[in-house]
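Thread: sanity check for a docking pose with calcium ion

Original post by kr_44:
Hi all, I'm comparing my docking run against an independent structure prediction. Below are the sequence and the ligand SMILES. Could someone generate the full complex and paste the structure tokens? I mainly care about where the ligand ends up relative to the chain.
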Amino acid sequence: MANYLNRRNFLSLSASALGATAAFGGCGAQPGGQPAAAQARRQGKPNIVVIFCDDQGYADVGCFGAQGFSTPNLDRMAAEGVRFTDFHAATAVCSASRAALLTGCYPERVSILGALFPGAPTGINSDELLLSEMLKEQGYATACFGKWHLGDTPEFLPTSHGFDHFFGLPYSNDMWPNHPQFGDQFTPLPLLEGVKTIAWLEDQSLLTTWYADRSVEFIRRNADKPFFLYLANSMPHVPLFVSDKFRGTQPQGLYGDVIAEIDWSVGRVLNELKEQGLDENTLVIFTSDNGPWLSYGDHAGSAAPFREGKGTMFEGGMREPCIMRWPGRIEPGTVCDQLATTMDVMPTVAALTGGRLPDHPIDGHDIWPLISGQGGAETPWDAFYCYYMGELQAVRTPRWKLHFPHRYRTLDGRPGGTGGIPVEYSYKETGLELYDMASDKEETTDVAARHPEVVKKLQAIGEIARADLGDRITGLEGAGVRPPGRVKVRPANAVADSLAETSVK
Ligand SMILES: [Ca+2]
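Reply from moderator J.T.:
Ran it for you. Here is the predicted complex with calcium ion included:
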């Protein structure tokens, strides 16, 4: 019988998890022997580390403007690498955003929209080539520690999609009976090792620590061969949990404590790379899946200075803090202000490692010229389609952003909730609105009337997008849409299909 985690048996699970870690890392190499081994393979394929946080906002990192908490490790990572200031998740919600990161495609192309609920009838299609599979084909050791959220039945889980190891949550950490509004719709939250549930969580205080422990152990154990580590922190998605190490440490409060612990986790990964002599053979990427969940108020982050947050395609919903570090290959302390996206990770890593890209179309671009600061390098994105839940809500060019008329959620100036209880959103409608991203990245002033020729050009881009990927606003089907994976046998704990497919989270 699986353990239920509460404060009382917290230590026992902690011990068992650590035991599992020890067994998992049992063939770990001796640290003393690593630098030489690592040196020998420096001419070989680089290690890839992607640290992907959940709902962390643009301003939730010190060097991106954090207020009330500090992130010394992320700031150091930026000082040693490149910081992107116009970097985007493909959309503003969890599952869809993760599908884009791992396939290099718009979520609409691979038909993973919104946030999949427990027992969802769909997941990532096995015909898609994931970043993990592309690297696995090249002999990489691969691990996913954290939140998955591309389907929770065995055929959709990480170990069926190119990952040797998975430890973490199959979906969001609020999809549990303790949800402040919808608890009666959820079954207990499983903690998975591979495809096996090893515990039902009632306390998430050690999640960030467990993921960090696993990550460090994985790096140590694979120091002499290429590896891909996907550290997908469950935090700072609500409900917020932090270990005793960081509780009460930041002036902002619990949210700041949670980010401080994530920062500590990043520091542990970077320190282990250094310890193992792998700094100069490892590309580390840090970013987030979407902007802050503003209705949670003091339990949400900040996208300042951008408009709105998670669940919208204003910049606050999907412009993310992004840092990349690779000593010797990336110029330290640089800033890239060119448009780039999470969809670029897959083709960039493919180019760096000599990996195979799929035969079917993908949407991302190789952005190594931007990452490495090649003189005068400009964004390869002529147009970025801003889709949310199948709706083409806006299109972006490097200079302009045109919103198509659509409904969006907003607090409309009201404060968010407190203590983990959200307030209700209001809903508003945009018109056909044009923003000049060069002078008004905050999207405050509609200049459509002043630039009719630009509006026309971006409307034409919108037509191209709709023909390819469809649009639920205009009811168009896209010719370039591929199907999701579908479960063969429905699990007993499935939430209603309608909820799974239509919920906006
Ligand atoms: Ca998210």
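Residues 385-483 form a domain with the Arylsulfatase, C-terminal domain fold (CATH 3.30.1120). Hope that helps with the comparison, let us know if your pose agrees.
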